Amino acid sequence: MRTRAEFLAARRGRRLNGPHFLIEALKRPDEAPPRFGLTITRKVGNAVERNRIRRRLREAIRLHAGADMVRGFDYVIVARREILTLPFDELSRELARRVRKTQLAEPSARTPRPGSE
């Protein structure tokens, strides 16, 4: 995923919050291969730390969670600072577990966020 519109669209989908990251998943109308996007805000750290988090997440997706991603879904992973110190095996397991869980979770009827209307 590359455009802001794609990231914002994923916010309307399923949402799984966790201690290390948040996953937002949206079912698209097509059955194309799954897409993912990473969001690491400046609050998390400087550019070096954000890039290290990004590399760790991409590798965890490539090795473990990518196989669990479902065709026709967009996934946005919003990272938190704890990913820097989290052991890679634990990060991979947690990411794969949460991606599998997005398939089972029903979209919740969330209240709109302030300012989103």
UniProtKB/TrEMBL annotation:
The keyword Nucleus does not apply. It holds the Pfam family Ribonuclease_P. PROSITE patterns: RIBONUCLEASE_P. SUPFAM superfamilies: Ribosomal protein S5 domain 2-like. Gene3D superfamilies: 3.30.230.10. Transmembrane segments: none annotated. One of its GO terms (molecular function) is 3'-tRNA processing endoribonuclease activity. It catalyses: Endonucleolytic cleavage of RNA, removing 5'-extranucleotides from tRNA precursor. GO terms for biological process: tRNA 5'-leader removal. It is an enzyme of class 3 (hydrolase). Its EC number is 3.1.26.5. GO terms for cellular component: ribonuclease P complex. The keyword RNA-binding applies. Keywords: Endonuclease, Hydrolase, Nuclease, RNA-binding, tRNA processing. It comes from the Bacteria. Consists of a catalytic RNA component (M1 or rnpB) and a protein subunit. HAMAP family: RNase_P. NCBIfam families: rnpA. RNaseP catalyzes the removal of the 5'-leader sequence from pre-tRNA to produce the mature 5'-terminus. It can also cleave other RNA substrates such as 4.5S RNA. The protein component plays an auxiliary but essential role in vivo by binding to the 5'-leader sequence and broadening the substrate specificity of the ribozyme. Belongs to the RnpA family. This is Ribonuclease P protein component. It comes from Aureimonas jatrophae.
